Amino acid sequence: MRRDVFQAIADPTRRAIINMIAHQSLNLNSVAESFDISRPAISKHIKILTQCGLITIKQQGRERYCEAKLQKLNEVSQWIEQYRVFWTGKLDALENFLALEDTDNNMKPVKKTKRK
pLDDT digit string (tens) for 52-83? Predict the structure, then answer.
């Protein structure tokens, strides 16, 4: 089953694994030792990350090493960018509206009240 990258980053453990492997290639035991969950659970997370295309497993002698392939995160970045552009436009429009309101309020004559 081919999973999508959003499934991979939805889980905090998988995000932590990606972060670890992004800095250096690690063998599966090193990855598993960094977490307080079972080795089979880590293997399942690694499998999902592999299916999503975010990591690859390379055999080196008797060890299997995880390497990050972060290009797939560009898909997430592009998806987020459309919302950043949308909300930046909305917030800029709000800022302009509030600045205009402030200008209008400052230009109105202030009514003087009679003091008793």
Answer: 999 999 999 999 999 999 998 998 999 999 99
- Provide the whole-model pTM: 0.72
Q: Are 19 and 49 in contact (CB under 8 A)?
A: no
Token look-up 């991979």 returns 8
The beta strand positions in 9-91, using DSSP E, are 26-27, 55-60, 63-68
Q: Show me where the domains of the chain are located.
A: 5-71, 73-107
4, 52 in Cβ contact below 8 A?
yes
Distance CA 39, CA 30 (A): 11
CATH of domain 5-71: 1.10.10.10
